[in-house]
């Protein structure tokens, strides 16, 4: 029974909200509801509340009442319909005798909200020995009703990967343990990088929890996390008026970091310092430099105004030193100037991007370094060893930004493209592709053939797109992305024809992946989500296409854009052409 103690808890408890924002733009994506003021009802911890309720078999009843309060307070946000509410769900509610589904749908409809506004967070805490309950909860109930699912505190329990496999979540929230001082720990960066990579392959978004400082935020951004939550964004607040739709300080930090990444910060991190000599120095000064540091094999040579001229290599002066009278000869030919023994050397500005510097090094294989200048003045050098380390790091970063199965650009690059496109006044078109009837195909023919279907589509994208400014991306699973920065001569019709060609080509080519019986009948028999046999048509692909900058301006934010893409995807699946398009500038916000 729901006694007075529990009713008191429900009456006094309150909810604070903490924002979850896009890591690139700082725009609000969701808020997490956090229980507050439970101490007034005599409970020491939040876990104590739910453990006690579970033992007394009223966990579901309690959760329903708390859920009511959280959703009601969430509805007070002026933009609540355009963001998501993350609500911590104890999956043990499915074991309660009074558990039933459907109540939350009714509650949301009373606030004119959709199930997609809610994301239930599942923790690893209660997973051991309860996977049947998780499957029932996630796969057969809430996900089927359109709710989003997230795994909370990922990485700190023992069953995380198994839970990830069973739950098929939309989000992974990386636990604060891995985020705390991540910029100081290679091991933590390795763990988070691995989690992000797994998530990208599976089409799951990652949220870095508990980010408390700029350094942690930047490292999470660098590693490819999609969203961020923590004190650096905003502390939890009970006042809904304190939650804003965009956190400009994050946007500023991201933009500032982006500017720095192509300026001094990246190169300064690698920069090596070495005492140079001047063009009018004595050859004895060169000897001293090389003798002082046996690991250095060259000496930079500068004009008196610190403009670099080149380098003197130890190998060049050795030819003199080890020959008869060579040292005396060298002394004579360098009287007043070292110019005759100076070799040319690659040179770059500290503000140049790493890619440019690596190209300079690649074109000059006779030298062991590149001299770095700032305002045309020598500030240091990059040795061949360091340059090779830079190449290796760049290759690793490039690999992180690619989907391992297809080699196409992943979520981080796609998100940055979309974010930049929305702030641009140039003509842009973006298309999201989603397979139709992929799951029954995958279940019927197996994962290996499913992967072959995914790589087939990736190859079709590569061959069909002939515009240089196009980004080809693989969101994960059977979801793909194309984005075009259009030139003046490019038209909507031209891009539409490309998308249509891709859709038709895939529908034709995928037929060869089916058995003769499937091709001739036009369908296969596979189990649906209820475990019943059902006939599924042969696989196709649908495309949701958005135009931006075609003479119309708009003020849509990220969440509204996601909603539009969601509606277009549904429309495309019912369209005879499997394509749905819209110009953002002519959309009236709800």
From TrEMBL:
It holds the Pfam family EAL. PROSITE patterns: EAL (PS50883), GGDEF (PS50887). Residues 426-558 form the GGDEF domain. Residues 1-250 form the EAL domain. One of its GO terms (molecular function) is cyclic-guanylate-specific phosphodiesterase activity. This is EAL domain protein. It comes from Sulfurospirillum deleyianum (strain ATCC 51133 / DSM 6946 / 5175).
């Amino acid at each position: 029974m729901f006694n007075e103690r529990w009713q008191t808890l429900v009456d006094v408890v309150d909810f604070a909200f903490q924002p979850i924002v896009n890591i690139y733009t700082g725009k609000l994506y969701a808020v997490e509801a956090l229980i507050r003021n439970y101490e007034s009802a005599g409970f020491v911890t939040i876990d104590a509340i739910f453990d006690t309720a579970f033992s007394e078999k009223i966990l579901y009843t309690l959760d329903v009442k708390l859920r009511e309060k959280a959703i009601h307070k969430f509805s007070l946000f002026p933009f609540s319909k355009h963001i998501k509410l993350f609500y911590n769900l104890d999956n043990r509610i499915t074991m309660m005798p009074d558990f039933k589904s459907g109540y939350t749908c009714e509650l949301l409809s009373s606030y004119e909200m959709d199930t997609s506004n809610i994301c239930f967070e599942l923790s690893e805490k209660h997973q051991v020995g309860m996977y049947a309950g998780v499957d029932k909860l996630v796969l057969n109930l809430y996900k089927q009703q359109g709710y989003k699912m997230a795994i909370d505190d990922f990485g700190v329990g023992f069953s995380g990967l198994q839970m990830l496999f069973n739950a098929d979540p939309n989000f992974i929230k990386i636990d604060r343990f891995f985020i705390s001082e991540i910029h100081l720990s290679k091991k933590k960066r390795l763990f988070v990088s691995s989690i992000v990579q797994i998530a990208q392959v599976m089409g799951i978004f990652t949220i870095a929890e508990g980010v408390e400082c700029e350094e942690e935020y930047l490292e999470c951004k660098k590693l490819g996390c999609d969203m961020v939550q923590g004190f650096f964004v905003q502390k939890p607040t009970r006042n809904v008026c304190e939650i804003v739709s965009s956190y400009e300080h994050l946007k500023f930090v991201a933009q500032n970091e982006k500017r720095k990444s192509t300026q001094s910060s990246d190169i300064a991190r690698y920069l090596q310092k070495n005492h140079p000599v001047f063009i009018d120095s004595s050859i004895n000064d060169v000897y001293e430099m090389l003798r002082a540091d046996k690991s250095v094999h060259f000496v930079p040579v500068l004009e008196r105004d610190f403009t670099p001229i080149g380098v003197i290599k130890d190998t060049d002066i050795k030819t003199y030193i080890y020959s008869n009278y060579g040292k005396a000869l060298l002394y004579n030919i360098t009287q007043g100037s070292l110019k005759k023994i100076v070799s040319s050397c690659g040179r770059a500005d500290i503000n140049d991007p790493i890619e440019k510097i690596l190209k300079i090094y690649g074109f000059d294989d006779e030298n062991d370094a590149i001299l770095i200048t700032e305002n045309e003045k020598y500030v240091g050098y990059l040795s061949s060893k360091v340059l090779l380390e830079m190449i290796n790091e760049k290759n690793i970063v490039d690999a992180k930004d690619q989907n391992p199965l297809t080699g196409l650009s992943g979520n981080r690059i796609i998100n940055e493209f979309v974010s930049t496109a929305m702030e641009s006044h140039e003509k842009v078109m973006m298309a999201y592709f989603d397979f139709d009837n992929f799951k029954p195909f995958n279940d019927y023919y197996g994962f290996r053939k499913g992967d072959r279907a995914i790589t087939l589509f990736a190859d079709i994208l590569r061959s069909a797109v002939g515009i240089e400014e196009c980004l080809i991306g693989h969101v994960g699973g059977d979801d793909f992305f194309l984005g075009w920065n259009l030139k003046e001569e490019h038209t909507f019709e031209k891009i539409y024809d490309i998308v249509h060609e891709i859709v038709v080509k895939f529908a034709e080519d995928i037929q060869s992946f089916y058995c003769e019986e499937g091709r001739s009948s036009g369908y296969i028999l596979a189990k649906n989500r209820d475990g019943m046999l059902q006939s599924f048509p042969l696989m196709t692909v649908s495309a949701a296409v958005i135009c931006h900058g075609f003479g119309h301006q708009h003020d849509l934010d990220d969440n509204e854009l996601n909603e539009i893409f969601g509606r277009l995807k549904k429309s495309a699946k019912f369209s005879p052409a499997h394509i749905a398009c819209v110009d953002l500038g002519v959309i009236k916000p709800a």
